[in-house]
Amino acid sequence: MGPALSRVALADGEAQGHFDPMIRLPPPKPEILARRDGILADLGRLLPEDAVIGEAIRLRPYETDGLSAYRQMPLAVTLPRTTEEVAAVLRYCHANGIRVVPRGAGTSLSGGALPLEDAVVIGLMRMNRILEVNYDDRFAVVEAGVTNIGITKAVEGDGFFYAPDPSSQLACMIGGNVMMNSGGAHCLKYGVTANNLLGLTFVTIEGEVVRIGGQHLDAAGYDWLGLITGSEGQLGMVTEVTVRILRSPEGARAMLAAFSSVEVAGQAVDAIIGAGVIPVALEFMDKPCIHACEAFAHAGYPLDAEAVLIIEVEGSLAEQDMLLNRIKEICDRFEPISMKLAESAEQSLAIWKGRKGAFGAVGRISPDYLCMDGTIPTGELPHVLKRIGEMSAHYGLGVANVFHAGDGNLHPLIMFDANDAESFRKAEAFGADILRLCVEVGGCLTGEHGVGVEKRDLMVAQFTPRELALQRAVKSAFDPGWLLNPAKVFPLEGNEALAA
Amino acid sequence: MSAALDKVTAPDTEEGVAEAVRAALAAREPLAVEGRGTKRAMLRPVQAARTLSTRALTGITLYRPTELVISARAGTPVAEIEAALAEKNQMLIAEPPDLRALFGAEEGATLGGVVGANLSGPRRITGGAMRDHVLGIRAVSGEGEVFRSGGRVLKNVTGLDLCKLLTGAYGTLGVLTEVTLKVQPAGEATGTLAVRVPDLAEGIAVLSAALSSPFGVSGAALLPEGHAPLGLDGPVALVRIEDFAESVTYRLGRLRAALSCFGEVSMLEGAPSRAAWRAVRDAVPLGAAPEGAVWRISVAPSRAPGVCAALREAFPARLLLDWGGGLVWVSGPATAEAHAAVMAAAAVAGGTFTLFRAPEALSAAVAVLPEEPAPLAAIGGRVKSVLDPAGILNPGRMRAGA
After folding, report:
1. Which residue spans adopt a coiled-coil conformation according to this UniProt entry (chain B) (predicted)?
2. I want to staple A233 with a disulfide (CB 3.0 to 4.6 A). Which of A5, A39, A485, B333 is the partner?
3. Does B215 have pLDDT greater than 50?
4. Average of per-residue pLDDT across A309-325
C-alpha cells in the first residue's frame, strides 16, 4: 500500500506547519501533560528499560500512520513484549486516567493509530512470535505483532495459507487486522478477518486478561469475538490471535477482459455472478486507472477500454480452464474490446502486475493521492462512477477508480498536491462527497480501511444520532472512562465523555 | 415457558413491535421474545407473562441475486427464503438446520429464530456460520427503539458491528425485525464419499485429511452409529463436495484415492448425497429420545474422540459429529449427572457446551452455557443494560438471573 502522503511525512517542520489539520482532537488533560515525567518514570518501572520511549526524536516515528496528513506527537510510547506487559500498562493507565492509543504496524489508512498529545501509545510490534501451528485442527496461534504475510509464510511450506490479504500485508500486523476487520482482494471467496478467526487473547482497559473463543468454532454465549473484530481499538487490546488456516488450492489463473463502457463491464460482472460463478477475485479498473497502471507496469492493458476486469479462478488446471471458459463465454455476450486468458502462472502475474501496482502507478502521475474506501451495491457502479466523474470536474482534481467488483468495495484514488493546502482541502471535501454518495445509494462509508479519524465526522451520514449513541454506549460498557483510542470512530460532537 | 395464547402479541409491523416493547417497559412486564416458538425448549425457559412474537412480521424485502444479498422481515419462514433463493440457484451459505423433529415443533423456523440462535449446519465448517453472513439487521431495543447495524453490502466495517452481538443473543439484546444475509450460488452438483472407519479417532483422521486437501470440501461429518435409512453402517465418515458437475466428479475421484488408505470408500451422488446431509444437518442420525436431553459441544476436532469416550463412560450417550469433528451432538438422559459429565468433558477439551434441548426440570436447574470469565461477565451485564436496561427481553433465556 503506497504511503499516500509520504512526501508530507518526510517534510520538515515548516512544511508540516502549513498544513492546517482539519481533524479536531479532544483537548488533552492538562494534569496528565503536567505529570509526563512521572508517568514515564512509572512506565519505566513497569516495563524493561528499552520498552519505554519518551525522547522527542524517538517518538517522532509514532506521530502518524498510513494517513500521514494527520500527525500528533504522543505523550509516550511503550513497546511491550508480552501480554502481561500490555496488561500492566493498561492497568496503570486506567488507574491514572491516562488515554491509550493501540498501534500495530501503523499502516492504517484512516488514522486509526493517530496518537493524542496526552496518550500513551502501546505498540505491539515486538509481540511477533508464532506460538503454535496445528495442521490437524487447521489453526495457528500468533502474537498480535506478527505480520499478515508472516502467518502465510509460516505455513505455506506445508501447503496452507491465511486467507485475508489486505494490500498492506507485507507490513500490517494481525492485531491491526483484527481491530480493523481487514479484507483484501480475495475476500469474495474467503471472507474478511472476522470470518477467519477462532480466538483472541483480549486485555480490558482495567488490565484484565481474558481468553475469547479458542480453537473451536462458535463459542457459546454472546459473540464477543465478532464484536471486538473491527472495533478499531475502542473496546480493549488484542495480544494473541488464533486464526484458521486453509489448504491452498491446486492452482490459480487470471484473465483480463476489456470493455467499451463502464455499464457493459458492470453487466458482465452481474452475469458472471448470476451464472453461479464466484471467482476468487474480481477486480475492476476505470480508464484513468488503466492508463496509470499501463504507463507504470506495461502489463498490456488496452488503452482504448473504458473499463477492465481482472478475474481470477482457482482449482486444478482442468478446473481453471473450465471456469475461465465459462467466464469468457459470458463476457463474449457483452462485446469486449479484448480478452486475455493467462496460460501460465507467469501470464497471470503479468495480468495482475498492473492492478497490484495501481496505487504506486497513480502516485507516479500525481504528487499525492487520497485512497478512499466506500462500499456500494454493485449494481450502482455505473451511476456512482458517473457522479464521481462530475465531482472530479467540480473540484478540478483527477480521480482513478479501483473496485472490488464482486463485493462492491470501491477505492477512488483522488489526486492532489500536498504542497498546496487548498488542493488538500479540496481532496478531503471530494472524498467526503464520494462517501456520502456511497451511503446515499445504499452502501457504507468504509469497506475495509475503518472509520478512524478520517471518516469519524461522516458517521452522521450513515447512522442516526440514537444509533450512534447506542454504539457509544456499547463502547462505554467496555471502557467507561473513554480511555481507549478516543477521538476515533465516533464524532466528537455530543460526546460528553471527551469534553474538556 | 407456558405463555397463555391470549397473552401473545404478534405485530405485523416493526413499529408494532416497538410499541409492544414500550408497553411492556411501561408495565415493567418481561417479554418472551420468539418467532414461531419452535425452539422454546432450547437453553433455559423464560419467565414472562407475555409473549412477543415476530411471526406476523413477514416478507422478503430485497433480493438481488447478482449482488448476493437477500433481506427479509424476521418472521419470514426460512423455508420461504430458501425457496426464493432456489429459484435463482442460490442458497443460505450456513445451511441452517430444520429442527422440527428434534423439538417436536409443527411449524418451521423463522429467519429471526435461526439468526437469533446463530444456527448453522454442515457447511459451517468451510462456508462460515450464520453470523458470518449477517450483513445487516434492524431491531427493537428493550427501550422500544428501532436501530440498525451493518447494511446491505458485502464489505462493511463502519462502526461497531452490533449484527454480531445480536446474532446468537437469543432475543436478549433486542428483537430482530429484519435481517440482510449474504447468499451464494448453490453448487450445480453434489457428491459424498462415505468412509467406513474402525473407530472415532480414525474417523476424525479421515475428516482432517479431507479438510486439509485442496478440494474444497463443504461438509465433513462422522456418524458413530451410521445412518440406516441410507444403508450406512457406522462408524462412517462423510465428506461432501458441492460445485460445478465437472469439478465434483474430478474432486471426488481425487479424494477417493486419497482417502482409500483409511478404509472402504463408497460414493453417494445426487439425491442420496443430499438426503445424507439433510439428515446430518437436522441431527437425525443422533436418534435423540424425545424425553432425553440434547447437548452440542464445540471443540478442536482432534479433541472430539476424547470427549466422546468420556461421555460414553459417564452415560449411554448417543453421538453425531459434524464440522470435521468440531461439533459433537450428544443425546442422553436429562439428568444433572449427565449434564455435569458434558460440562466436564467440554472443559477438559478446552471447548464449550450448550444444553440444546432439555425438559424444564433440567434446563431451569443448571447452567446451560459455560460461565464466562468474570471481566467478560461484567462487560456482558453492562452491554445488556445498554440494550435492555429494564431487563424485559427474554429474561433468563441464556443464564439464570440475566
Report:
1. none
2. A485
3. yes
4. 97
* A16 pLDDT above the threshold of 80: no
Do the domains A252-359 and A366-440 sit in the same CATH topology, yes or no?
yes
If pLDDT is split at 50, 70 and 90, which confidence band does B84 have? very high
Instruction: Return the CATH number of A130-247, one of 3.40.50.12780, 3.30.465.10, 3.40.50.300, 3.40.50.150.
Output: 3.30.465.10
ipTM: 0.97
| CA–CA separation, B88 and B79 (whole Å) | 15
User: How near does any CA of chain A get to the CA of B6, in Å?
Assistant: 32
- How many angstroms separate the CA atoms of B353 and B43, rounded? 11
Digit-coded pLDDT (tens) for A270-300: 999 999 999 999 999 999 999 999 998 888 8
Answer whether A447 sits within 8 Å of B153, measured CB to CB. Answer: yes
Residue A305 has pLDDT above 50, yes or no: yes
Half-sphere exposure of B396 (CA within 13 A, CB side): 18
**Grid cell in block for residue B241:** 463436495
Please give the residue of chain B at the shortest CA–CA distance from A467: B147
Contact list, B185 vs chain A (CB under 8 Å): 273, 276-278
Establish if B198 touches chain A: CB-CB under 8 angstroms. Answer: no
Q: Measured between CB atoms, which of A134, A139, A180 is closest to B157?
A: A180
**C-beta of residue B75 within 8 angstroms of C-beta of residue B8:** no
* A211 to chain B: closest CA residue: B373
Examine residue B235 and say whether the peptide bond preceding it is cis (omega within 30 degrees of 0): yes
Sequence-distant (≥ 6) Cβ neighbours of residue A233 within 8 angstroms:
A101, A102, A112, A179, A484, A485, A488
Q: Is B249 on the interface with A (CB under 8 A)?
A: no
Residue A137, judged by CB atoms within 10 A of its CB (0-12, 13-18, 19+), counts as: buried
Q: What per-residue confidence (pLDDT) applies to B46? A: 94
Cell numbers for A194: 472476522
Looking at every residue in chain A, the average pLDDT score rounds to: 93
Mean pLDDT computed over B17-23: 98
Whether residue B290 lies within 8 A of chain A, CB to CB, comes out as no
- pLDDT of B300 reads 98
Taking CB atoms and an 8 Å limit, are A218 and B299 in contact across chains? Answer: no
To test the contact with chain B by mutation, choose from A94, A222, A334, A403 the residue with the greatest count of B C-beta atoms within 10 A, namely A222
Nearest to B150 by CA among B133, B162, B165: B162
Would you say how long chain B is, in residues?
Answer: 402
B78/chain A closest Cα distance in angstroms: 21
Residue of B nearest to A202 (CA): B376
Let me know the angle formed at the C-alpha of A99 by A93 and A104, rounded to the nearest 5 degrees. Answer: 95
Domain parsing of chain A, residue ranges: 6-123, 130-247, 252-359, 366-440, 456-498
**Across the interface, do B379 and A477 touch by the CB < 8 Å criterion?**
yes
Chain A residues whose beta carbon lies within 8 Å of the beta carbon of residue B152? 377, 442
- Cβ contact B151–A183 (<8 Å): no
- Residue in B with minimal Cα distance to A468: B159
Is A238 a residue whose pLDDT tops 80? yes
Query: CB contact, 8 Å: B26 with chain A?
Result: no
CATH of domain A366-440: 3.30.70.2740
Indicate the CATH number for domain A6-123. Answer: 3.30.43.10
